[in-house]
Amino acid sequence: MTIAALVTAVAFFAVLAATVKPLGGYMDAVFAGRRNLLTRVAGPIERLVYRVCRIDAQAEMSWKTYTFSLLALSFSGVAFTYVELRLQALLPLNPQHFGNFAPDLAWNTAVSFATTTDWQFYSGESTMSYLSQMAVLAWQNFVAAAVGLAVAIALARGLARQKAGTIGNFWVDVTRAVLYVLLPLSFVFSLAFLAEGVPQNFASYLDVKRWTVRCKRSPAAPWHLKKASNCSAETVAASSAPTRVLQTRTPRRSRISCSYSRCFWFRPP
Fold first, then answer.
1. CA triplet 96, 98, 104: central angle to 5 degrees?
2. Is the pLDDT reported for residue 115 higher than 50?
3. Residue 10 burial class via C-beta count within 10 angstroms: exposed 0-12, middle 13-18, buried 19 and up
4. Alpha carbons 141 and 26: distance in angstroms, whole number
């Protein structure tokens, strides 16, 4: 293990240990329905979701009803993802005109993202449209993670309520996981990406030409006129611009400095 990897691992576990208590207390307040840091902001949205979806936040579920609700949401997510990927070419936000997924690839992607496996047997930049990445994959990242979090909370309730016949409300747990945990975290990380200048838009891709420089050192020679012909620059895309060749005296001990299509031989100080 390298020093950088060791430092990264130590820093990760240090941050994890430092955030266990405050984050655990916050999540306990969230899923217990107590007032927390985001109640004033997310509380009205939470109540609106319950009203629109006709969810009784006070109703408790048995483990069978909880499991049935979980499987119903997961299967619905798989079906939605599969249909969208199979019809990708017909949907908007596809400036690259990517085609539809093959049946087996669409099914594999739908199941893997619904189970938080996120196994991708393709290159997203050359296969996925913007709509597929945002409305399908990113949505499944949220919903599948919220389902996993709800299962962990239900397990904790089941262990704490050994004589009770209910383990909470699945729809309430998923809603709170998204509004109070996943969305705030994604907002913080989005600000970090913006600070680093990560671009995001709905335009088609741009082709960027890269320069590749290859230099070859010539053997040392006495002072004489010599062309710097052993130092050449090539570009990925063919260019008609000629390479500039300079003539100068070359010392016995010389260094080479290459910059794109120009090569300079110069005497060390």
1. 160
2. yes
3. exposed
4. 22
What is the token pair recorded at 107?
């099914």
DSSP class of 244: B
> Distance from first CA to last CA of the chain, Å, rounded?
40
pLDDT score of 77:
92
Domain locations in the chain as residue ranges: 12-195, 211-266
Asked whether the beta carbons of 218 and 226 are under 8 A apart, the reply is yes
Angle between helix 139-160 and helix 63-86 axes, rounded to 10 deg: 170
Q: Where are the beta strands (DSSP E) in the chain?
A: 211-215, 225-227, 231-235, 247-249, 255-259, 262-266
pLDDT-based confidence at residue 262 (cuts at 50, 70, 90): very low
Contact 234, 214 (CB under 8 A): yes
